[in-house]
Amino acid sequence: MSIMKKKTVLSFLLFTVFALCVAVSCTDEDDPYYSSKRQLLGKWELVAFGNSWNNMIVVQKPGGYYEYLSDNTIRHFSYETQKYDSIKSAYYMDSLLHVGSIAYKYSFHEDKMDLLITNVLAEFNNFRYKRVK
Questions:
Q1: Which residues of the chain have pLDDT under 70?
Q2: Are 99 and 79 in contact (CB under 8 A)?
Q3: Contact status, residue 13 vs residue 20, Cβ threshold 8 Å
Q4: I want to staple 97 with a disulfide (CB 3.0 to 4.6 A). Which of 35, 86, 104, 107 is the partner?
Q5: Vertex 63: Cα angle to 57 and 65 (nearest 5)
Q6: pLDDT for res 12
Q7: pLDDT at residue number 3
């Protein structure tokens, strides 16, 4: 085998080993937000909102729920029409939950999720959701 062929084969093998190492080392579990992303998936119904966690307005009759899907989309289900809205929203998570141009601080407590708007002025900043079974 010529020196040129040996170098080509060696280069190919090194590249293959490097690519495999990178592919194996990059798993979802390595993502520092993996646990939060797993907790977010599912259906969530708004139960309270306000500007202080100590003074929330309780939602007496929820109008529907939001379903966070693993493909980073959200769909809304209306109890009135018994249908999903035709438009899905996109989201992504890091230390914040980003939905469109709005960023929320998030926390999970058993079957509850608290969201606090961080980057825009809004009439209400705090939102509490409960998981829908």
A1: 1-29
A2: no
A3: no
A4: 104
A5: 95
A6: 47
A7: 66
Let me know: does 129 contact 46? Beta carbons within 8 Å.
yes
Q: What is the pTM of this model?
A: 0.75
Residue 48 CA to residue 37 CA, distance in Å, equals 22
DSSP 35: H
Alpha helices in the chain (DSSP H): 3-25, 34-40
Hey, what CATH topology would domain 31-132 get?
Lipocalin (2.40.128)
Residue spans of the domains in the chain: they are 1-27, 31-132
Q: How many alpha carbons lie under 13 Å from residue 17 in its C-beta half-sphere?
A: 6
User: How big is the chain, counted in residues?
Assistant: 133
Q: What is the pLDDT of residue 2?
A: 64
Distance (Å, whole) CA 126 – CA 21: 43
